[in-house]
């Protein structure tokens, strides 16, 4: 049993690392096409971002691997595979619940990470990326990586989710994590400034966090930032 759990954790670490390399690599390539020269002279920083991100991949991979094993072998979690096991309207609802729960957790732990002591010990690693690049998506100190790694593995025990919706959550998490750091806005201005876009976080929003530090803490939605008056609007990265 223990051998299977370790194997699952190792496999998941490999998957998370590969997912990071593919997503960050693809958007770094897109950056070199769309904003040639943007990452010039950032070679040393990118090396650091990749090293911290690979450590984070293991920290994310271990709980994910244990839970994946328990799901397959012990029937843990509330992940379901039959489309009709729950009403179809629940599919988009569960997507929103997962994103909102993750966003809320991120907002408050992120604000905690900006308390001086925790910032010095842990979060300074993420903010060493100035300006961040597509490779900074998982560039976290291990303490911060742990706070991020436990969210989805805990949520799957609490909130029922179809396996395809879960895959979509992980895809959104990966793509937004990379693109929010890549230094330029990939969404059209028309969308970013639309009534819906005004509630969503994209690179124009998170870039301001990396410039000013004490604002724009959110992950997907501007809900908490607006409610707590920490929203300082958009930059034009
Ligand atoms: Zn960031
Ligand atoms: Zn921060």
TrEMBL record:
It is found in: Membrane. GO terms for biological process: lipid biosynthetic process. The keyword Membrane applies. InterPro entries: Fatty_acid_hydroxylase, Sterol_Desaturase_Related. This is Fatty acid hydroxylase family protein. One of its GO terms (molecular function) is oxidoreductase activity. Keywords: Membrane, Transmembrane, Transmembrane helix. Residues 96-230 form the Fatty acid hydroxylase domain.
């Amino acid at each position: 049993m223990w051998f299977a759990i370790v194997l699952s954790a190792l496999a998941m670490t490999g998957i998370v690392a590969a997912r990071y390399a593919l997503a960050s690599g693809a958007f770094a390539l897109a950056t070199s096409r769309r904003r040639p020269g943007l990452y010039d002279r950032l070679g040393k920083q990118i090396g650091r971002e990749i090293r911290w991100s690979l450590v984070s991949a293991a920290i994310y991979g271990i709980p994910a691997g244990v839970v994946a094993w328990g799901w397959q072998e012990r029937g843990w979690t509330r992940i379901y595979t039959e489309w009709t096991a729950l009403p179809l309207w629940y599919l988009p609802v569960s997507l929103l619940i997962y994103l909102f729960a993750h966003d809320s957790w991120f907002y408050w732990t992120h604000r905690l990470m900006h308390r001086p002591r925790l910032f010095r010990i842990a979060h300074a690693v993420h903010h060493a990326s100035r300006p961040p690049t597509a490779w900074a998506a998982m560039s976290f100190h291990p303490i911060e990586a742990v706070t991020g790694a436990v969210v989805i593995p805990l949520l799957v025990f609490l909130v029922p989710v179809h396996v395809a919706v879960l895959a979509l959550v992980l895809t959104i998490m990966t793509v937004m994590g990379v693109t929010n750091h890549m230094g330029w806005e990939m969404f059209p201005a028309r969308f970013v400034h639309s009534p819906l876009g005004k509630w969503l976080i994209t690179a124009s929003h998170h870039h301001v966090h990396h410039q000013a530090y004490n604002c724009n803490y959110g992950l997907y939605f501007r809900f908490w930032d607006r409610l707590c008056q920490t929203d300082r609007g958009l930059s034009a990265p």
